[in-house]
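Problem: given the chain below (728 residues), write out its structure.
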Amino acid sequence: MHNIKIYCVLFLLVMSLDLEAATDNKPQNIIEMSLGNNDGLPNDSYWQQKLDYKIIAKLEPKNKYLTASAEVTYYNNSPTDLLILWFELPQQRFKEEKQKTSESNDIATKYLQVTDKYGTPLKVVWRGTFFSIEPTQPIKARSEFVFHFSWDLTLINRSDALQPRSGFETFDEDKFLFGVAQWFPRAVAYSAARGWSLTPFLGKGEFSLELADYDVEINLPSNYLVLATGQLKNPDTALSKKQYKQWLTLTDTPVFISSSVEESKGKLKNENKKWHFEAYNVRDFSFAAGNNLIWQSQKIKVLDKSIRLNVSYPDNGRWLWHQYALPATRHSVNYLTELLGVFPFKTLNVVNITGISMEYPGIKFVGFRGPNVEVNKEEIKYTRTEKYDVIGGIIHEVAHSYFPMTVNTDERLEGFFDEGLTSYLSYLVEQAWNPNFQSFYGKPYRVFEANHKVDYSAPYQLADKVSNKLDSHYHVPAVAFNVLNKLVLEKHNFNEILANFIKQWRSKRAYFKDFENFVSAQSNENLQWFWHYWFETNKRVDLSIDNVELISASESIEFPTHQTQHKHKPQENIAAINYAIVKNTAVSDPSQAKLLGNSFEGLNLSKQDQYTHFSDDVELAAFHWEMCAYSQMNNSHQILSSGVKFTVNNIGGIPSPIELKVILNNGESLNKKWPVEYWLINIDSVKSKKSLQLEWLFEKNVKIKCVVVDPRRMTGDTQRENNYYAVP
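Solution.
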């Protein structure tokens, strides 16, 4: 026993030093972290920890106060005996921040008691938001340990400047809405890759968690509606008779279930009701509770699996949610299931609550709301951004059902992994809703908004270290996956590879290195350069074409380089064009917007509105070669050319496949692609050349009007004006 205590003290000291140093981790220290083999599949020796939670909680809405107790079983599936266990209560961070500013810190957890199954108190040592517990005996490898927690939690306001992911929203007349998350002691991830995942919680980083089974009882006033992770086990007693009947008879026709607003009438506020939920093999448990909620529900069947969809929003600011929330949820589940396979949850809840949006297993908190207008009012004013913020916010959080909910990723260490893939998937879902969707992440030709900034940070950084999390962890990785899908892996189906990765790693922990190895192995492509430049550096794609030389049958004709050739271009204001793109200048002329086709809004006329045919791409005005194609410039003096020689410069630093389009005088065009290997010094190196001299011989003689690099706008090129050459 004495030796165990010595080891524990030493271990705590090491962990303390790790906590101090973790914020200074350089990307190269974690890039090789993996739990898979060289093909990106789980190792034969793969193991992971598991827990069972049996929680009884009581929420006092008036005091914003929660008390709870839990019986916890920790299954040590590792090959190592454990002397201590680590847990985390992230909301302690907000208490610390309030103390620094002398603000009221009457939030977070004030008391925490831990005992073994016999009631013997266990030693607790705090380290920031983490705390360790010391069992009376080591937890042997492949054995289990049962113990008990008792704790409290005073919730923080969701609108607080610290941007908490959990808390409450207050309305008039004692109306409250709670989004309760990070509310119980959650086990810190322990893996073969890095031991305990003790990277500190500083606010922007998210979470690294273990899978667990949950049996949760929530007690609160009877006029509250509760939606939570998992399945409701006592609908007959938790719901009113009217609600229960609607709940039982739910079909694929959307239904407004008798809401908490209606059900609260005549009920005593101090009369408590129990809600009982069970969830299996999930990484977290969260719930929402409110006494002014509108509840809309539907049951759909996808791949022979019934899924219950619940959408709930406060009795204010509700028009856009009434119009679009349930359709957006249904559309997301249908599209993602078709793309990636079985949807991971039997019940999916989407709740509108103020503050930043956040994903949890089977329940999503979405902060975007829109105007406060009555549901049955026909003429209302809302902006295009408000509409697509609500729809896009829902789509994004639903897409998180795969990363990190199905494939359990380390959000705090590799936040770009789950957010990047989720933003990529969201882009696909959004474009399937409407090809004119105001997508904020994923469009390759809009990436300059992020990585052209002087302080842009490489994605492979901790969330609290990057200059702009939305740029580095959402937008640029989403663009990278789009480039990978549409340009780099054209001969392969990246989405099929992604679906297969989810299948192989379902309910397992994966690191980004595992994903890299899997995609490379499945595609049989050397992608080391791609992962390095797009994720480990803050470089960008910026290809320029120069030294264009037309080849005739008898001799070559050399034209001036870029310094003088600009005078031959059609006149345009590049700064104004880029400004128009950044500001999402919309064109309402349907001829300039993309056709709706079989998109959701295309097939559902009732969901179309004044913004359906708007486009924020400003495509015809923004790119030089279209202007060349439509130019009436007289160059009839040109001779016939049998080919073209040219130089491509890699100004931005990221090598890219080169697509070249040659536009002819007769309106036709020729296209050719050079693979990225032309840039690489050798096939096994990420080092690349800064310029290439290329030659293209045509099958017949032609008259060339202009030449453009990246005509499909798929490389993520951040500077369009140097992609174009007009023949004088």
